[in-house]
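cron nightly-structures :: item 1 of 1
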Amino acid sequence: MRTNDIAVAILSLVGLSAAFIDDTRNLKWSTLGGKKTRLIGHRGERAFVPEHTYASYWQAALEGADFIEPDLALTRDGQIVVSHNLWLGETTNIRDIPELQKYKRNITWPDSSGHVYELTNEYFIFDMTLEDIKKVRVMQSDVEYRPQIYNGLFGLLTFDEYLSTMRELTVKLGRPFGAIPELKMPKIYNMGRPYPRYFEDRAIITLSHYGLANITGNIDKSQHSDLILSPVAPLPAGSALGPAVWQCFDQDTSAYLANNTDVPVACTRRCHASLLHTQGLDAVAKYAKIVAPWKDFFVTGAEASLKAKGVTWNATEIAAMGGFIAPDQLVKEIHSRGMEVCPWTFYNSKESLSYLCQEKGIKPASRSGFCPKDKTEEFFYFFEQGADYMFVEDIVEANILRTFFANKLENKQNQRLDS
């Protein structure tokens, strides 16, 4: 039996012990469509398993995720692999592989938020070929409470392998799972390529190959004949694929994906003032179906959150555009424009909730003055607000809290019927 098979067998037993049962109650939630909030496995199930691995995706599915997220990167030879970071020194064993030491170097670059990264003695995916990448094994982040027993068992996947795994999960577990790929740093990955939207087009072609996207733009597939894509067998009768959603922090890329496929786009942002007033949302609504801001925008508020990140803005300009939207009104404003809401990221209960309002001297700007003390208060607040999706870690906990909230919702709705 292969190492991967043994590890997945162990994880299957762990997942089955969680005994996920889908909650099919017909309740009226505060989401845009009135359905229950959907849970997205953040990088799979990274609370327990090394992120973005075959095992991580299996574990997320076994625990009942509705969507499972891959982050996309591009190798030197143009193959799409799944990795959150552009570099591999933090979450893999690459430092222990002699033949890959030639790739170690220093680099400085600004991200889409203007934050400048300075990385030294690191190994960057865009410098390496797929053959190089396949020599690397993934390690769990060195975070307290995260098991280290699966370190080195799994390699990095390609986007093609991720999508093949999603089909496998759908067939074997008997339910569809949504795919929500994020294109990481497209401006960097497109440097030195044959044309400016090379990365985006290869991602589009791959998603289309698996039947999750229709190409609506003019993409020249002949320039991508070297893209490695596996044969796709028909699904068994009665099986159905889950939906797909694009996400990207780069708004030009987001608009390109929206204009060239029929797949909805999530506008993902953390440190931009332009998203957090009414005119900013009006602009986003022209191409996005989902808005995915950092969760603290809904709690502590835009001004404190942006200041904490060192982000500056033109106060006169923001005031002329109506000012920042109050955090407890942000979901309402997004929904009023026909867009869904997808805050991120909700961590394992053993980790910090990561809200500024928990820090001394920083008060939440919402009218309610709300600041969650624990994960239950946090989840119930976002369920009540009407979050349509939530990026979560420890999906078992998230599913339990969603069920508890559904019980509360059912009792309240039954009381209304009885009165």
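cron nightly-structures :: done
Confidence is low (pLDDT under 50) at residues 6-19.
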